[in-house]
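Hey L., structure's done. Input below.
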Amino acid sequence: MATICNQARPATRRYILAPLTLLVALIFALPVLWMLAGSLRAPNEILSTLSPLGWRALVPSEIRLDAYMNLWHSGFLMAVLNSLIVALGTVAIGLVICALAAFALSAIPFPGQTAIFGIIVLSFMIPFDAVAIPLFRVFRAVDLHNTFLALILPGIGNGLAIFLLRQFFLGIPKQLVEAARIDGASLFKIFWYVYLPLSRPALISAGIILFMFQWQAYLWPLIIISDPSLRVGPVALAQFSNQFDFDLSQLFAGAMVLSVIPALLLLRFQRYFVGSLATSGIK
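Output:
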C-alpha cells in the first residue's frame, strides 16, 4: 500500500503542476503575442482592440506586412546587423579575456587574489549608467568614438562572466591539473587542454551573457556613436518615435525583430546555460 501511495504522489503532483506551468507560461507569452499581433495590424487598430479587452486583441482581423516592409526601407536591418557585429565581436574577444581572468583567479594562487575577485564581483553590481559619462570622456580623449571598437571594448571584461567561469573552473578535478603538471605542461597548456575542453557549458553561458549585454545596450551606443551608419538596433528602434508622432505597429515590428535573435540563441543553448548555472555553485 505504501508503494502505491508513493507512486501516486508524483503523478498527482504532475497533474497539479502542469496546468500551473501552462498558466504561468501563457501569462508571460501574452505581451509577446499582443506585440506580434500589433506588428501585423494597421497603427490605428492596435489600441482600439483593447477596449473592450478580448481575444481580438491577440488576433488581427487582417494581416498586414507594411510595418516589416518599412523596416527594410528605413535602414533598421542595417542597425540590426551592426548590433550583431558588435555582439559577436564582444563574445569573441570577451570570452578570451574572461576565461583567462577566471583561470588566473581559480588556478594560480597569488597575493591579493581574494581582494581582486571581490572587486570583480562588485563591478557587475555597479550600473553602467554610473560610469558611462566618464568612460565617454576617456574614449573621446583617445579618439575612439564613432567606431565599432568603442562599442565592443566596454563589454569584453564582464564581471558576471568572469564570476561564472571562475566558479566553474573551481569544480574541475585537481587530479587532472596535477597530472598535467607532472607531464611538464605549462600553465597555458593546462588552461588550453584541461580547463577549456571541460568548460564548454560555462563558456557558452558566459558567451550568452556577453552577447545579451551588448545586444540590449542603448545608453552607451547612443552617446558614443553619432554616425548614422554605425547605430545599433535599440537606438534605431527608439528613433521610430518622437515627441509628436510615432508608428506603433512599426515599433512593435522592430521590437519583434530584436527579440527573435536572442530568443533563438537562448532556445538553442538553454540546456548549457542552465547546466552551467547549476554546477557553478558546487564549490
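Residues 73-279 form a domain with the MetI-like fold fold (CATH 1.10.3720.10). The chain has two domains: 2-64, 73-279.

-- N.
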